[in-house]
Every structure is written in C-alpha cells, then in structure tokens.
Amino acid sequence: MSGPQCCSNPPTLNPNSGAGHVEQLGGLPSYVVGSPDSKLAILLISDVYGYEAPNLRKLADKVAAAGFFVAVPDFLKGDPYVPSDANRQIKVWIQDHNTDEGFEYAKVVIQDLKNKGFSAIGAAGFCWGAKVVIQLAKFDYIKAAVLLHPSFVTVDDCKEVKVPLAVLGAETDQLSPPELVKQFEEVLNGKPEIESFVKIFPGVVHGWTVRYSVEDETACKKADEAHQDLIQWFSKHIK
C-alpha cells in the first residue's frame, strides 16, 4: 500500500464537480446523482483521495445515466490523503483510515439507502475502497460487487464472497499484480454458485479507472472500457 503507485497521479479535488449534489447519507456527506425513483442504488467507494475527485464523480454521473441512483460517501471523514504533506506519508495516513472502519460506515449508509426504499444495492470500490467492498460482498448487504485495481484484497477474501463479483485489474499494479488477480480468478472459478468476472487490462497501471488525465485520449478510452464493464455488471445483477 505504501508503494508509489497507490498515490500516483493525484486528482485535483473539487467539491463542486459533477452533475449531482452533496447530501447526508448514513451520517456522511455523500455525492449523489440519479433518480431516487429508480429503487436501484450503486455505492462507489473511493480510493485514498476521497469523494471530491472529479473523475470519480464523473463516473458516478455515467452510472446514474444507466438508470441507477449513485452515492459516493465521504468515508475518509473530510481527510483525504495529501501527497504533498511530508509529515503524513501514506503509511501514517492509512493508520487513521482503516478499511474495517470504512466497512462499518458502509453498512450504515446501505441501511440508510434501504430505509429510503432502494430495493437492490451494488457497490464498487477503487484501491482502498475495494477492500471495503469485498468485506460487504461476504454478506447480504449488497447484491453485486466490482473491485477496481484493489488494495489489501486477499485470496482468502475471495473465498468468502457470497454475491456476484467482478474484478478489474491492471497489467502493471504493485498492489494487485496480475499474478494475484489470477489467483482471485482461480478461487472464484471454484465457486460456481457465485457468478464472477475477472479481467486484466493491458497497458494500464494501478488507478487507471479514476486517476487518468482527461486530456489523454488513450487513457480516457481505457478508463471508459472499465467503466462500461462496471455498468454492464450492475445492469445484469442489480434489478
């Protein structure tokens, strides 16, 4: 987790980015977009840079356009990682942002969504957020899950998954290298009762789905391919 890839290409955070707005969900400020009448909700759980990252919100808008209500809560409690802070490097920052705590927050947000009438909920996690999502996938909190360039996720985690799971990995990833992602796939293939989808994207690095430059046409296309896989997975399983 402390490798440079985890924190490379940091976004310029913008609290006003996206077509949606911020409201409270489960006691957390959350970027929300899409029709609450859809009754189908998707939770996006951020990487270490949090819920104000413009590309993450842009993805939320894209998922909402596919017919979902999308929520991106601030699981980092207003304290995203700041790479320029030499006194608080990632090893120090991560001690204040345990993924187990994120899992507890997520359960409260999901219960709030259910209380609001959402009948089916899916969750996708990026880097740090992927560990939170795979914890959710071990229970019946959600109906389907997507992990994108995950951090901290283990083969043992995959053994306990109880809902349809997609894993989107990068060809170059120190945190979840292709060899590890293939081990995830082997475990998931050994669970025929759970539908799974595993894909390793060539020519991309950890973080490519949300930490790309909007000026880089190739990077945008590669990110969009992953976004479409995510949307198709949820369209199939969240209904």
Concise account of the structure shown:
The protein has 239 residues and is α/β, with parallel strands linked by helices.
> What distance separates the N and C termini?
35 Å
Per DSSP, the total helix count is 8
Oligomer: single chain
Shape: globular
Note poorly predicted spans. Answer: none
Question: How would you sum up this structure, described in words?
Answer:
With 239 residues, the protein is α/β, with parallel strands linked by helices. The chain is built from eight helices and eight strands; from the N terminus they run H-E-E-E-H-E-H-H-E-H-E-H-E-H-E-H. Strands 1-2-4-3-5-6-7-8 form an eight-stranded mixed β-sheet, sandwiched between helices. Helix 7 (178-189) links the parallel strand 7 (165-172) and strand 8 (196-205). Helix 4 (99-115) packs across helix 5 (128-136). The model has no long low-confidence stretch (mean pLDDT 96).
Which properties best describe this structure?
239 residues; 8 helices; eight-stranded mixed sheet; alpha/beta
What is the fold's blueprint, element by element?
Layout: H1 4-7, E1 21-25, E2 28-33, E3 40-45, H2 54-65, E4 69-73, H3 90-93, H4 99-115, E5 120-126, H5 128-136, E6 144-148, H6 155-159, E7 165-172, H7 178-189, E8 196-205, H8 217-237
Parallel strand pairs: 3-4, 3-5, 5-6, 6-7, 7-8
Antiparallel strand pairs: 1-2, 2-4
Helix pairs in contact: 4-5
